[in-house]
Structures are given as structure tokens and as C-alpha cells.
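User: Here's a structure from my thesis project, written as C-alpha cells. My advisor, Dr. K., wants to see whether a designed sequence matches the one we expressed. Can you design one independently, without my sequence as a hint?
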């Protein structure tokens, strides 16, 4: 997904200048350099930036920043929101150079939960890794990693070694993220079973005492 934003170079920095920009409907930001390139201070329309930030894939998308007569390819790195109003008050971007690898977090999602026998038997899915940190080609950033529950039973796990990741995706911490998800016995089911067992025992005891 490639998004476009028009930004302006800003020369002044500091709290006072940032306040002026926000009064004009602009959000201050910075483009961090890659290799030996220097960081560039910018401002961007708050309205346009807020619209793009609302996209679930914003942080996994390469953006094209239009700066005068040139463009910069970047990845969003951080967005700062006002603690009370939730306005976007600052944004950080990182330049993306051709042939480079970038480190991002890819959302992990469950699919076909209704086709899992283990879920039908009362199990629940324990998603251990909600976002998998990976090195990827910025030109081919996957939107998400799907875990298919079809045919999965209670006790079965999704191991990173057994998952076919998209081409060009390499986990940053394969040992830490070795188990992505597992189907476990529901605590509710366990409590219900224990309650039923206790009730049966009490009933039997009562009958025997008569």
C-alpha cells in the first residue's frame, strides 16, 4: 500500500514554533535520515495526517512525501497524540532506501475459528504473539500474518518454524516468538466441569446417607 502526503520544510524548531503550526492546522514532524543523510524537519496537514493515521495499515505502509519538487519514500515510525484531545501533535518518519530492509511489527490474526474442532469442544485460542517483529522489504510489506485454525484440536500450537511467512519476511526474534498461538482448555469449561462433578458427588453422598 502506497500513500501520499504533501509536507513542507520547516526551519524553526521548539515548543513555540510547534504551537504556531498547530494553530494553523499543521502538525510538526521529522524525517530521520538513512545512512549519512541528515534529519529533515517538516510540517504536514493535521487533517490529512489524521485521516491516514486512522488506517490499520498505516505503520506498515510506505508513504511518498511530496516536498516541493521532490519526493521522499518513508515509513511512519511514531505518532504522538495529545493526552486530552487525542489530536496528532507530532509525527516521525524514516527514509526508505532502495534495496534496504526495515524492521516492523506485522499483526497476527486468527482465521477459520469456526472450523476448529478444539474450539467446538470448548477450547479457546491463546494468541501469544499479537504482532510479529520482522525484517522486511519495504516494497513488499504484508498487511498481516494469518493463522488458520481449520482442523485444529485443543493442545495444538502454531509454531513459528512451521508457519510459511511471506517471501522476504524474516523474524527478528525467532526464539522469543517461537510459539505464536495455541488452543487451550477454557477456564469456564473447567469450572463448569468441576461444579458438575461436585454436584454429582454431593448428590451421591446424600443418597447414601438415607
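Assistant: Designed independently from the structure alone:
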Amino acid at each position: 500500500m502506497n500513500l501520499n502526503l504533501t509536507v513542507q520544510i520547516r526551519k524553526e524548531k521548539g515548543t513555540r514554533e510547534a504551537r504556531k503550526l498547530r494553530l494553523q492546522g499543521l502538525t510538526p514532524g521529522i524525517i530521520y535520515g538513512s545512512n549519512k543523510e541528515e534529519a529533515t524537519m517538516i510540517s504536514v496537514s493535521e487533517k490529512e495526517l489524521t485521516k491516514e493515521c486512522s488506517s490499520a495499515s498505516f505503520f506498515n505502509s510506505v508513504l511518498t512525501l511530496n516536498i516541493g519538487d521532490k519526493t521522499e519514500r518513508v515509513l511512519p515510525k511514531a505518532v504522538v497524540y495529545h493526552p486530552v484531545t487525542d489530536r496528532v501533535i507530532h509525527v516521525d518518519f524514516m527514509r526508505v532506501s532502495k534495496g534496504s530492509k526495515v524492521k516492523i511489527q506485522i499483526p497476527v490474526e486468527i482465521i477459520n475459528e469456526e472450523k476448529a474442532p478444539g474450539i467446538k469442544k470448548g477450547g479457546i485460542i491463546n494468541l501469544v504473539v499479537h504482532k510479529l517483529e520482522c525484517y522486511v522489504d519495504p516494497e513488499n510489506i504484508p498487511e498481516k500474518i494469518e493463522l488458520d485454525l481449520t482442523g485444529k484440536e485443543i493442545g495444538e500450537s502454531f509454531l513459528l518454524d512451521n508457519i510459511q511467512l511471506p517471501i522476504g519476511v524474516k523474524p527478528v526474534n525467532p526464539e522469543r516468538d517461537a510459539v505464536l498461538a495455541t488452543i487451550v482448555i477454557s477456564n469456564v469449561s473447567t469450572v463448569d466441569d468441576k461444579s458438575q462433578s461436585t454436584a454429582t458427588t454431593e448428590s451421591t453422598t446424600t443418597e447414601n446417607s438415607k
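When you compare it with your expressed construct, this may help: The two ends are 75 Å apart (CA to CA).
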